[in-house]
């Protein structure tokens, strides 16, 4: 029997058109009259202009020296380390405490986008990792990664980024342990996790120098130093990195690295640019006084509202950072801001639907509920003690 959700997914374009025609039929004159007002047209024009200014600022100051190196690092991690090196420790054959730690930090080494975490989550759970370890990876994967950390530090603040990283790792383990305990009596069928070890060229001292140089490009590019010195440092390190890549990596490895980097860039940059533009546009439209009155105080209610907004108004990977920066400029308290950024990458309606098909609604609701509670209180206490 075809479910209602499947019907909606298949025919969403027709449903969207029907809804638009209904809106036009019922409120055509009212909406047209409102949009035709001079003050409304002025506000829209000014908002689009602020969106453009935000996009220009972002491209000028954050992309070349921050995002580009970060994408190359993410591509190198995915192509030159090999996910099997990490995932083999999540197969249920290693010590549980070690598996939890690897799962909690594994997202940093596996993927930038949250899209591939869902099949990884389902895969390692079915292949013996256990629900707790799998859920730990599910939360940690989209919550902490190299690009998110660098963007949060640059746009919001490095103290904020460090706290976000610490919260994400801690919550990943806590939620995993909670889920394992809550559903400890339930069993599921396991299958063997077969891992083919990659034959990589980077080993020993070469590997250390290679990775140290690669991360140094990002560190120098984001450091608070004079522009000329920063540019000279980035160019010098990049040339050194290029030389090591030519001498130490095979042609296949260089190709795989480039392909992974381009994949990350293609998946994220267009959505990120749109997100930055829309963030600047809609931020200008929001009444500043009313917004500050609603979210400017650090209370449990405002933190809960921020978490709910992050879960419902889900943005693509990394777009939550410029959105959060816009909220901060409008006067949002640091507590609700932290709560929003902890919840937005890991909770979404579409994500929960997919998770529910893998593990069922009881486990999905327990997971979502624990995320909401922990992130709400984390934002509240962060706003009390660390601002």
The poorly predicted ranges are 191-197
N-to-C CA distance: 53 Å
- What pattern of helices and strands is seen along the backbone? HHHHHHHHHHHHHHHHHH
Estimate the strand proportion.
Answer: under 5%
Largest sheet: none
What does the average pLDDT come to?
A: 77
- Strand count: 0
What is the helical fraction, as a range of percent? over 70%
Protein structure class: mainly alpha
Radius of gyration: 23 Å
Shape: globular
- Count of helical segments? 18
In a nutshell, what does this entry contain?
With 387 residues, the chain is mainly α. It has 18 helices and no strands. The protein has one domain (38-191, 203-385).
Q: Can you walk through the features of this model?
A:
With 387 residues, the chain is mainly alpha-helical. The protein starts with a helix and ends with a helix. Helices cover 80% and strands 0% of the residues. Helix 7 packs antiparallel against helix 9, helix 10 runs antiparallel to helix 11 and helix 15 packs antiparallel against helix 16. The radius of gyration is 23 Å and the shape is globular.
